[in-house]
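step=encode ok
step=design start
structure_in=
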């Protein structure tokens, strides 16, 4: 969730690509000041609207973060995972004002909840996870650390998504389904049975194509 310090002194985004543009606009909608971003690409998409403060290596410069909180705004899960251990302590999350998060739900540190997304009753979303635009995390779901629930995806009640797993655009998990860590659920897939760690799952109904 957002912090009082972030409201006072602004945030620095880690990443400057397409997902960072979405996060920056959500942050602004949530009344957060984006002070700039870090990215290795000097021509990253976010540079059209915000100042690039340096490459990702600048994460090592503690003085850069003395007066700012940090938002992890990379879209690629492997890139996000490689940076999580290097993030400053003052990590913050963003919940777009049009999203709805149940009072009984739990959001970890650095979570992004996009426009019109829903996190329902007693759901848990782990640290650094993404619940993207119009995604639905139903009651009593468990979303692991650094997982990405892509735009329009729906997790049925009591389903589980492991850490570092991507649930693709418009995919569906039926209630109670468990998908392990480091999985990929293809766009538009309907997952009717649980899947082990490392699986790629596609189709209607979804089938594992590799591990």
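sequence_out=
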């Amino acid at each position: 969730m957002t912090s009082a310090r972030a409201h006072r002194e602004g945030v620095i985004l880690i990443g400057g690509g397409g997902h960072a543009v979405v996060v920056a606009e959500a942050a602004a909608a949530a009344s957060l000041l984006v002070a700039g971003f870090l990215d290795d690409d000097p021509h990253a998409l976010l540079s059209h609207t915000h100042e690039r403060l340096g490459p990702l290596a600048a994460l090592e410069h503690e003085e850069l973060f003395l007066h700012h909180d940090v938002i992890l705004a990379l879209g690629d899960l492997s890139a996000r995972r490689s940076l999580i251990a290097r993030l400053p302590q003052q990590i913050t999350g963003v919940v777009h004002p049009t999203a709805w998060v149940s009072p009984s739900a739990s959001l970890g540190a650095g979570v992004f909840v996009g426009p019109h997304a829903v996190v329902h009753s007693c759901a848990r979303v782990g640290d650094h996870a993404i619940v993207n635009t119009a995604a639905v995390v139903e009651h009593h779901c468990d979303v692991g650390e650094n997982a990405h629930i892509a735009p329009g995806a729906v997790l049925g009640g009591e389903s589980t998504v492991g850490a570092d797993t991507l649930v693709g655009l418009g995919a569906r998990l039926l209630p109670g389904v468990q998908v392990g860590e480091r999985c990929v659920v293809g766009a538009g897939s309907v997952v009717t049975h649980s899947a082990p760690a490392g699986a790629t799952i596609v189709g209607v109904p979804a089938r594992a194509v590799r591990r």
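step=design ok
step=annotate ok -> The longest helix spans residues 18-29.
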